[in-house]
Amino acid sequence: MVPQLRFRHVGMLVRDIDRMAAFYKDILGFVETDRGTASGVMIVFLTRDPSAHHQLVLSSGLPEPSGATRALQQLSFMVDSLDDLRQMYRNIWDRRDVSGLLPTDHGNAWSLYFRDPEQNRIEIYLDTPWHVAQPHHFDLDLSLSDSVIYRQTEQRVRADPSFKPVQEWRREQLARLRAAGIRVPD
């Protein structure tokens, strides 16, 4: 039986630690809690949570790429509203150190994807009120009103046989986790 695990932080190797720390502080609002060297590696600790010393750890020493492979698929950050997603879009729209800006409707989430200065993919997202089996990928027009976005998304996913309210899906997942012997709080 696996004990209750709560995800707390991600560590990421980087090439230019000062540039990357500045990016995560400027764009995503992280605060630097510590910085130092261990075994010849510079390390920067960043957080957005007052109860967590760090949520993101940047470590120097990432070698130059020998192809398109990456060790990190993406970093994902949740926001509370479509207005927050729009604000992030405005924040990064004209930055030269950001690439691959892609607003996306997944049916179960509205996402904004982009790449940091070292080409790591970042996702800013919020959940929709619905579940639909993944993957789903539709363009998301953040210039539309919340009500239009909600209506468009619901129309797209309602036709899918896996469609259900997210609360129903969460109850099913809770039962599956408990059946697997994983302790999950009520």
Characterization of this structure:
The protein has 2 domains: 9-62, 2,3-Dihydroxybiphenyl 1,2-Dioxygenase, domain 1, CATH 3.10.180.10; 73-186, 2,3-Dihydroxybiphenyl 1,2-Dioxygenase, domain 1 (Roll), CATH 3.10.180. By secondary structure, it is α+β, with helices and mostly antiparallel strands. The protein contains 4 helices and 11 strands, in the order βαββββαβββββαβα. It has helices at residues 17-28, 82-92, 146-158, 166-179, and strands at residues 10-14, 31-38, 41-47, 56-60, 75-78, 99-105, 109-115, 121-127, 130-131, 138-139, 164-165. Strands 5-8-7-6-10 form a 5-stranded mixed beta sheet, covered by helices on one side. A 4-stranded mixed beta sheet has the order 1-4-3-2, covered by helices on one side. The protein has a two-stranded antiparallel sheet with strand order 9-11. Helices cover 27% and strands 30% of the residues.
Question: How is the secondary structure organized here?
Answer:
Layout: E1 10-14, H1 17-28, E2 31-38, E3 41-47, E4 56-60, E5 75-78, H2 82-92, E6 99-105, E7 109-115, E8 121-127, E9 130-131, E10 138-139, H3 146-158, E11 164-165, H4 166-179
Parallel strand pairs: 1-4, 5-8
Antiparallel strand pairs: 2-3, 3-4, 6-7, 6-10, 7-8, 9-11
